[in-house]
Amino acid sequence: MTIALYARTKQWPLESVVIRLRHSRIHAKDCADCVTRTDTLLDRIDTEVQLAGKLTAEQRGKLLEIGHKCPVHRTLKSEISIREVPMTG
User: Fold this and answer.
1) C or N terminus of the chain, fewer CB within 10 Å?
2) Does residue 36 fall inside a structural domain?
3) Domain with 62 in it
4) Residues 6+ apart with CB under 8 A from 43
5) pLDDT digits (tens, 9 = 90+) for 4-27
6) Distance between CA 2 and CA 20 in Å, rounded?
């Protein structure tokens, strides 16, 4: 959504965006670019982004950069703490 909105704002010829995600679990010690180095499993999400349209290489690069700044991408890249909070009422 963020990529499409940015392209529309810039009036770039983006026709469609297809994003494929693949989830797996890997050992932290096998992850070269991970901070965590314990004997635990990490969630890994592999992404493929397909941009259709007569875009220049520069436009494609910028759209991918913008995609990495979207709220969902930033949330998934951050450390996440999930707490159960009792419902009130």
Assistant:
1) C
2) yes
3) 2-77
4) 23, 24, 25
5) 999 999 999 999 999 999 998 877
6) 16
